[in-house]
Amino acid sequence: MEFSHRPVLLNETLEALSVQPDGVYIDGTAGGAGHSSEIAKRLTTGRLIAIDKDPDAIEAATARLAPYPQATVVRNDFRNIRAVWEELSLPPVSGVLLDLGVSSHQLDCAGRGFSYHSEAPLDMRMSQQGMSAADVVNTYSAAELIRVLRDWGEEKFAPRIANAIVSRREKEPFVTTTDLAETIRAAIPAAARREGGHPAKRSFQALRIEVNGELDALSRALDDAFSILAVGGRLAIITFQSLEDRMVKRAFAEYATGCTCPPEFPVCVCGKTPRGRLVTRKPVTASKTELEENRRSHSAKLRCIEKLKD
Ligand SMILES: C[S@@+](CC[C@H](N)C(=O)[O-])C[C@H]1O[C@@H](n2cnc3c(N)ncnc32)[C@H](O)[C@@H]1O
Ligand SMILES: [Zn+2]
Question: Which of 37, 125, 152, 300 allows an S-S link to 8, with CB 3.0 to 4.6 Å?
């Protein structure tokens, strides 16, 4: 299957990163190299490291970046961004990009099991290794399932869905996406099924986040990505759901905060000055044209911070 993914907020991201021809950049989420190829195109003596953990994305990014000798593709998890940077003996970098979540390719490739629309093995592993979504629904306790559905999916019917999953798997373990989607649909009260899209949407998001350790990877990568920036370097992150955006917003606010003295102190005694400057005060969202052309752009939010000092 051909790799199809339309990059979101492309111009906005390039502008936020302010790509310099001699800069060193790391794209932690290469995917189909939509952003990466545009960065690579702007480099002369600079360098681009394009990381992804999905073997399909690695194949697609390698092919797309082949015309650019400035680009190196690395299969890894961006949670290890600092280790990759050290391994390649790179200098402090001019920019890091994280375009989070799944690619359209992953969603559309029915066999990967990310979508509740088409019947497929319940997989959802971006890296194509480790624990699958079937392992989660067939082995987690009801309490653990409630935590996953509530924390990662903000699903208000988490207990009902978790109980339905546990009683169904006692008869027969879950194998397919549609099988699970139907159990979830049936567990949600009829009146609520008509709200907010497909009834399995939030649960599938929650399972995907759990299977891929998405928020854990982001929380580990944030400080490390900021730490490898050169002074003047920029970290740009595109999020697609509120949990991620909140995490990025908080981290950036902390980098951009100087003094930590209690507000009642008349003068600053801590002497701390901000380590970063917000390039985007408010998150950047898609233009009207992009919203019309790309459904994925609807929930996209771009935030960017510039490093002011080490
Ligand atoms: C939204 S897509 C990126 C699309 C890309 N910017 C483009 O325009 O083609 C997200 C990509 O990040 C990868 N990914 C998600 N979490 C990752 C992680 N923790 N480490 C490495 N890659 C990750 C996914 O496999 C997917 O290919
Ligand atoms: Zn202070």
Answer: 300
Output the CA 217–ligand 1 centroid distance in Å.
12
79: number of CA atoms within 13 Å, CB side? 12
Give the tens place of pLDDT for each residue, 217-272.
999 999 999 999 999 999 999 999 999 999 999 999 999 998 889 989 999 999 98
Q: Do residues 233 and 307 lie in contact, with contact meaning Cβ atoms separated by under 8 Å?
A: yes
Average pLDDT over residues 89-96: 98
Give residue 255 CA to ligand 2 midpoint distance, Å. 14
Task: Render pLDDT for 145-179 as a digit per residue (tens, 0 to 9).
Answer: 999 999 999 999 999 999 999 999 999 999 999 99
Cα dihedral sign, 204-210-214-216 = positive
Pocket of ligand 1 (CB under 6 A): 5, 7, 29, 31-35, 51-54, 57, 77-79, 99, 101, 103, 126, 217
Q: How confident is the prediction for the chain on average, in pLDDT?
A: 95
**Predicted confidence (pLDDT) at residue 34 exceeds the cutoff of 70:** yes
Q: Which residues contact 136 (CB under 8 A, 6 or more apart)?
A: 145, 148, 207, 210, 211
Contacts by 106-109 with C-beta closer than 8 Å and gap 24+?
106/54, 106/56, 108/1, 108/4, 109/1, 109/56
Q: Determine the distance separating the centroid of ligand 1 and the alpha carbon of 106, expressed in angstroms.
A: 10
What DSSP designation does 130 have?
Answer: S
* SS3 label, residue 265: coil
What percentage of the chain carries pLDDT values higher than 90?
A: 87
DSSP state of 95: E
